[in-house]
Amino acid sequence: MQGFEYYNKVPVAYSLGNFLFPDYVKNHSAETGVLTMKFKGENEQMSFNPYIIRNNQITPTQGQEKQNMLQYLQSTSNDVQVEQDGKIINMR
User: Fold this and answer.
1) For the chain, which has fewer Cβ within 10 Å, the N-terminal or C-terminal residue?
2) Domain spans of the chain, in order of start
């Protein structure tokens, strides 16, 4: 997975991970998620829900695992704040 940014006021999500692959996907390669975009007029809201591939199934992350993934995404993002609930806020 890679981070997020707003480029010329347009939301950009770089590589959301491997959404579904067999059990050979492990460690960071098994991290994935669902990006949600909401549009209302000229406003948009971007949020990310982290998931992980385990036993060939996509399962939502929780607790520290979820926070670790969101913190990683924060570290790879430009000029956005990735909040604990997954909301991605434009800081420009």
Assistant:
1) C
2) 4-84
- Residue 18 buriedness (CB in 10 A; 0-12 / 13-18 / 19+): middle
Distance CA 24, CA 37 (A): 30
Cβ neighbours for 36, distance < 8 A, ≥ 6 positions apart:
46, 47, 48, 49
Check residue 30 and report its DSSP letter. Answer: G
Q: Is 9 left (phi over 0), alpha (psi -120 to 50) or beta?
A: left
Please name the residues in contact with 72: beta carbons below 8 A apart, sequence gap of 6 or more. 1
Which of 79, 44, 51, 78 lies closest to 65, judged by CA? 51
Give me the pLDDT at residue 76, please: 96
Instruction: Find, among 48, 26, 28, the residue nearest to 37 by Cα.
Output: 48
- pLDDT in the model for residue 58: 86
